[in-house]
Predict the structure of Site-specific integrase.
Amino acid sequence: MKGSTHRRCYCRDAHTGKPLGKQCPKLSSRKHGSYSIRQELPPREDGTRRSFSRAGYESLKAAQADLDHIRALLGLADTDDPEGMALIAAMLEEVGDEKSPLPDVEETRRRLKSGQDLIGRLTVGEWLDRWLDGKRIRKSGLSRYETDIRFHLKPRIGHHRLDRLRVSHLSDMFTAISDANAEILEQNAQRRAAVEELATVPWKGVDNRARRKVMKTAIDAMPPFRRVTGPATRLRIKATLRSALNDAIGQQILTFNPAAHVELDPVRKPKALVWTDARVARWEQTGEKPSPVMVWTPEQTGAFLDFVAEDRLYAMWHLIAFRGLRRGEACAQPWSETNLDDHSLTVSAQLVQDGWEVETSEPKTDSGFRVVALDDDTVNVLKRHREQQDADREQWGSAWVETGMVFTQEDGSWLHPGKVTDLFERLVAASGLPPIRLHDLRHGAATLMLAAGIDVKIVSDTLGHSDTRITRDIYQSVLPHVGKNAAEATAKLVPLQRKTEAEEAARKAAKKAAAKAKAEARAKKKGKRKKPKK
C-alpha cells in the first residue's frame, strides 16, 4: 500500500494571508517547516478508502521511522487474513484520529494472535465489571466482591488503563484508604463529642431549647458515624483485585499482576482466650472483653446449657457446643443426613446470608463435607428434639412447612441465621454469663476436644478445617487446668538436686522451731540450777 512523507510549513502570504505551501522560499532549508506522513490503509467494509496521517515531525528521520512502524503493524496480518487486516486498519485509524502513540509491534502481534482488543484502552473499572459478570459463584461471594469493587477499587483506581496499572498505583490507593480512616476517626470523635455535649443540655428553658436547636443543626451538618476500613478488609480488597488481575493474565490481557506485589501490614487473627475467674472479674468491673474471641470453661458451658434447657432450639445449642458445627451448617442440617442409629451426621449444606436474604449452599471447601460422630447424650438430645418436632408438625397440620431440616422455625420453615445469632446473644445476656459469640461456642467445642486429649487431626476433621495448621493456629489457648497439668508433668521429667521453694521453706521452718525448742530447754535447765533467795 502506498505511503509517503512530505515537508510543509505554515507560512502565509503577508498580503493575502493564504498559506504559501510549496511556494515558501524558506523550504530550501531543511530546518524550516515540519514533516508529515500518510499511509494508505485497507478499505472499510463498504469499500471506502481510509488512511493514516500524522504531522509535526521535526525531521525526515523521525517521520520515516513512524511510517516504517505503521507498515510493520500492517504486516502483522497475512494477506489471506482479511479479518486481521481489518482489525489492524481499524486500530490505526482510531490511533490516528485520537493522536495517541503508535502501539508496540510485538504487543500488537500477541494481542492479534490471542484474539484480544488491539488497543489496550480497557480500564481497570471496565475489566472489574466484566470479570464480576463472568463469575459463577454463590451470591454471598459475589456480594463481597461487588462491595470491594464498588466502594474501593473503582472509585480509586478504576480510571487507570488496565495494561498500565502499576504497584505504585495500588500503594497510593491503600495510603489514601489509611488517610481516609484517620479522617473518619476524627469526624466520628467530633460528632460523638457534640452528641455527648447535647445530652448535658437541659430540655427546660427558652435558652436551653435555643441552644439545643443550634447544636442539633450543627450535628446534622456533620458527617454521619462511619466505619473505618480495617486491616482485614484491606487484605480482602487486595485479594479481590489480585484474583481479577490473575484472570486477566489467564486471558493474556496482562502479563504482570501488580496486586501480587503490593505490601500491606499483616493481620493477626485474634486468639481464643478462656473466661477465667480473673477475666470474668475484670469484665464485670469494666465491661471489656479481653479478646474478640472468648471461650467458656466447661463449667460455664454447662451452666449455659442448663439455663437454656427449655429453649425450643436447645438441641442446636447442644450440638454446636459439643460437636462444633458452624451456624449455617446447623441451620441447614437435614434429617436425611442425620443418622442417629449410627451416631453420626453428614454435613453437606449450609444456609448463608446475602444481606438479609437467605439461600442454601454447599460448604465452601471440600473439607466442609464431613461426617461428624455423635456421643450418646447428643443422640438422645436429638431424639427428644425430633419427637417435639413431630408433635409440632401434627399441631400445625396443613400449615406446616416441610423442609426436612433438623432445626426449623415453629412452622417448620427455614431458620434465619441472623435471627439465630440474635437469639443466642439474648440468651447469653439473660444467663448472666460472660459474653461470647455464637461462633465462639464452636471454638469452645474445639478447645474441649483438644483439652480432652483428642488428636488434632480428628479435631480438625470434626470442625471441617482444610489443614491441621488452621486448627493449631486458632486454638493455641487451652483450658487453664490442662495447661497447669502439662506444665507439672513436664517439670517432673527433669531430676533436680536442689529443693523446691516449698521444701526449702519447710526446712527453714523446722530448723527455726528446733532452735527455739533447744533455747527453751536451756533456759529451763538454767532456772533449776539457781538457788532460791533467803
Observations:
- The longest strand covers residues 34-41.
- The first helix runs from residue 60 to 74.
- The mean pLDDT is 86.
